[in-house]
Amino acid sequence: MFKRLSFILAVLILAAVAGMVGVGFYLSPQDNLAVSDAIVVVSGGETNQRVAEGVKLYKADWAKVLIMSGAARDAKDSNAAAMKRMAINSGIPANKIITEEESMNTFENAAYVRGIVESRKLNRLILVTSPYHQRRAALVFAKALAGLPVKIINHSSLDSAWRKNGWWLDDWARKLTWSEVKKVAYTLVVPFPYQK
Fold first, then answer.
1. In Å, how far are 92, 105, 132, 153, 172 from 24, measured between CA atoms?
2. Which domains does the chain have, with CATH numbers?
């Protein structure tokens, strides 16, 4: 009896550990890079790291255009304008950066970027955001771009505090992770709110 209970307890502990690790990897999908039409950088948490990753990808010739997406809640400049300045200061030509300055959330990022994708006839995008936000952003962008022949390649920036294989060690990261899991679940079940 004791051996059986020990075995069951060990299986439950292993399942809990696998579940914790699995959540981090689920939230942060990473695809193989391929040469693309544009690199889309979404503003939000750790915007500097997101821009740095977009710049790095551009300089490595993964795409010829950067799309910076995001408004600002309080500042007079949009997040996209600030991101453009960061990219220019990193050596990216201003004419290779498109700004989308209206979006206030991930759904709007995707909706407004769709307009850019349609007008420029883009077919492949590298989507850059924070690792914990990557799954949700990819789901939202897929819904926004439905009906268009567009492939999304997921590629996260680094994050100073969140790790997909250690998020449970920090209280802030645990709260962020569970919040993101709930938002992903919501995204999976609701229709895209900005369909034409």
1. 32, 22, 7, 18, 14
2. 2-157+169-189 (3.40.50.620)
Sign, CA dihedral 29-159-84-88, equals negative
Kindly state the helix (H) or strand (E) to which residue 120 belongs, with its residue range: helix 106-120
Residues 6 or more apart whose Cβ sits within 8 Å of residue 62: 33, 34, 35, 36, 39, 126
How far apart CA 152 and CA 174 sit, in angstroms, is 28
Q: Are 130 and 179 in contact (CB under 8 A)?
A: no
What percentage of the chain's residues is helix, strand, coil (to nearest 5)?
A: 55, 10, 35
Per-residue pLDDT tens digits of the chain, which is 196 residues long: 666 655 555 444 554 454 555 789 999 999 999 999 999 999 998 999 999 999 999 999 999 999 999 998 777 889 999 999 999 999 999 999 999 999 999 999 999 999 999 999 999 999 999 999 999 999 999 999 999 999 999 999 999 889 888 888 889 999 999 999 999 999 999 888 765 4
Q: What predicted TM-score, i.e. pTM, was given to this entire model? A: 0.89
